[in-house]
Specification:
Number of strands of chain A: 22
Helix content of chain B: 40-55%
Largest sheet of chain A: 10 strands, mixed
Mean pLDDT of chain B: 83
Structural class of chain B: mainly alpha
Number of helices of chain B: 4
Mean pLDDT of chain A: 80
Number of strands of chain B: 3
CATH class of chain B: Mainly Alpha
Shape of chain B: globular
Strand content of chain A: 5-15%
Largest sheet of chain B: 3 strands, antiparallel
Order of helices and strands of chain B: HEHHEEH
Strand order of the largest sheet of chain B: 1-3-2
Largest interface: A-B, 32 and 28 residues
Oligomer: heterodimer
Chain lengths: ~900, ~120
Amino acid sequence: MEAKRDRHDHTESLWRALYEVALHLYPRRFQEAFAPDMSRTFAGKLSDVHPAGRVRVAAFLVSEFAGLLGSVVRVRAGWTMTRAGLPPVQRHRRPFSTLRRELRHGARRLARSPGFTIASVLTLALGVGATTAVYSLVHSTVLSPLPYPESEQLVWLDHMAPGLGGDGSLGNTLGMADGLYDHYKDRVPSLTDMAIWRPAEVTLSTDNPERVAGVDVTPSFFRALRVQPVAGRVFSDAEVSAGAPGIVLSYALWQRRFGGEPNVVGRTVTTDGSVVEVLGVMPKGFGFPDEAVEFWRPLDVNVTATGFGGFSREGIARLAPGATRESAEAEVRAAIPSLVDAFDGIQTMLDDTQLQPAIPTLKEHVVRDAERTLWILLGSVAFVLLLACANVANLLLVRVESRHQEAAVREALGAGRADIVRYYLAEGFLLSLGGGIVGVALAMLAVRVLIRVGPQHLPRLSELAVSMPALGMTAAVLFATTMVFGLGPVLRPTSSLAATVKRAGRGMHGGRASTRVRNGLVVAQVSLSLVLLVATGLMGRSFAHLVSLDPGFEAAGALTFRVGLPIARYESQADAVSFHREALERMSALPGVEVVGATSCLPLCGSWHGTQLLVEGRPDDPNTVLGVVAIRRVSEDFFAAVQMRLLAGRLPTRADQLSGSGAVAISAALAADYWPDEDPIGARFDSGAGEDNWLTVVGVVDDTPIRTLTDGPPAIAYLPLLDGALSRVSSHELSYVLRTSVRPESLAGAAREVIQSLDPAVPLARVATLQTLVSQSNVSTAFTTVVLGIAAGIALLLGLVGIYGVISYMVGRRSKEIGIRIALGARSGQVSRSVLAQGGRVTAIGLSIGVVAALGLTRVMQRLLFGVSPTDPLTFVAVTLLLLGFALAATYIPARRAARVDPAQALRAD
Amino acid sequence: MSYEEVPTQFLPLGNLSFHILLALGAGESHGYAIGKEIERRSEGRLSPTTGSLYQALRRLGADGLIERAPDEPRISTDGRRQYFRLSELGRAVVRAEASRLHALVRLAAERDLYLMPSS
């Protein structure tokens, strides 16, 4: 009793939630005035009607939702604004009241066959909901413009280096440099408001310190994006050239650290130990270059003082009126050779890199490879929509035909064609309405879930909202299907009164033509399901490959976090390193910690920061251009902490590090790249900057990925924390790795205490387990697999319902014939075999079409797949067999029923 | 009531509107109770959905026939319900509608189409 009461409460709150979702259809002002009250009233009425039984509840729900939709239309159309008196409807009362009566009767008929109603409404809702949700995702990510004024003029400034083997794919571009920015400013008329920036991380304030990420930007940055601060101002060109410090806060940072106080502008904050003035606050939601950015500081480009600088900047610009990306690229290409005149020693760089501009639109850059994934997902849910249409069409065909008799009687009693049409229309209308409403709720729910669980690097996820045009489109498609298949049989010219009554009287519903339509629909369903299942199977296998991939280190059982030291107080590398050494020492003494290491950049950190190496005794041969090597600084225990395997030689020791012997380890890929035919152990190299501080290779370690597990093995050199010639790679900010014998997360607090005891103003940042970092790098494949899996699951379900429905309908229709056969001595086995054969034939045709379609369509997935070919035979065979098995099972149930037909009953039942 | 708001300009009242105003004639009430009252009085013949009920309430409010009752603590399980009451104009409109109907009924009686109950 108690449990039943609970379930009842649960269902009621579910319906109430749905009703509240539907209330969003009203104009905002109406919602504000009445929505909470209406929801309460609805809930009250629902509990009142509940004791009257399920049919009454269903009728109540249908009329409430239909009534809501009707009044939405009227409120939105402004009919209620006519002053008092008669609403215009009342004058034409008759047709409306007839229609209303038909709707009421239709609702009662639907309430009497809840199985059919629920199946249709759910099918329609799944179609509308899934398609709308994924279309909304594609819309907000790929189709809708970026949230900046005239954003189509914004371009990303980048450079490729074909000379270094960079193919221009993500991560292999060079970006921008101060020198290029300065050089292009006056030489590229196609680009206005060119802006560059570099990432920055600072420790904010001394009490309760926090590490926050931001960027240092040229003042043109805000002009290019055309954004204005909500409070205060941004820095001016004059201020920046004068070197005046200042900081602009993000809205989120302002809310979090300053409680949204309006007088924050003009106050000072401490960043990395130095005091700066807060100049302004950017609008809510503004986060460029990415959403994690929480502040903007001035970046002064002064090439007379600093020279060309490294390729460590990113850049954007706005196209001048009339200019195109192509014209901008041509002008940049033309400006590159004259760099030689502007900067000393730039010729070598130009020769090495063969520098080329790459200027995609900002949106192309932001959306990148997500676009293809999203289109594939959209394609897959479009299949679901088609399947839903086919299924509803099938359900309706069966229903309409079984109602022929009633319609014929009505016609015989004098009902006109229009009345018959209205009779069928009412049901179709109510079904689409129900499906539409539940579908909207599903879409809204799905969008909320997507925002919550979607991969964080899926671009522009925070802008996601249900797309109204998409909702309208899918709803219209399903509505049209319902109407066409609901009315089709009535509108057929052959359905004359006499013929209908005759057929209806004999209980022979539907002719050869409608059988063919139904079989065609099942074939379509089976083939669509097959394509979706194959796509899912391929993604699933890719994901399995990805997860089983050896990353070159042990992800489980390690805690990581970043510790950044302010340069203002730890001026030299040596100061920073002695702090880190002390911290590492204390942490290794913590209970539960096995070994502690530190590195400037963890595996999967995404930074290719590095240089080309100059190998001792090897002449500088211009014909053999060697790749850029990523540089990491590591403590001696780093390799043990991440459990990286040693392949040759030995690992650098603590003695090496302290004595400054310059002993380094290199990755296997680096060994293969620079020493393809020789033993790298003992070889010496330096960064080529002429610092004459040679490093010696003492060991080769396993490859570890830089960005994703699927990238090829990168060339990495592991330098000691201190010195080692490459002073440009700082040791101020290091990632710590704690290999633990206990749950890694449990040590975060103790680690924080260690850092605080050494310097209370230094915070821990990006605390995460190493396992989390690995999972995050797989998340987009996982996401695609899950969405495709859901689509395929729905497809499988709908396909099976379709097969089952059609075969059982066929058995029902043939029951008299089967009865005669059994009466004449047919065995039950023969009967069920013939039914199975019938289902098998339809399935087989569907499967063959599906396999051919899948072979053609999975090709577009090539780039999403990993370690599996788009025509992977195993996946194809397994999916085909799976679907065949399910289809035969769905046929088997009606086949058994056929075998049990009682001949006497079947012959009498007319 | 400003002077240009003549009660008769709202006549004849829609069926649902009239019932809502009648229900509020008994004192201020909230949406759910108004709906119940209408259903009870019409013996189930008129049972507005929540949507049409609130649409009508909004229209009557916009026309100035009803108004929101001021919030005050009430003895109720759910104190946040919104209460409505008749405005002066609304009261005048119900009266005008009732006397219009009364005149019609009297006309029907004079022509022997209806037997007036002896008062």
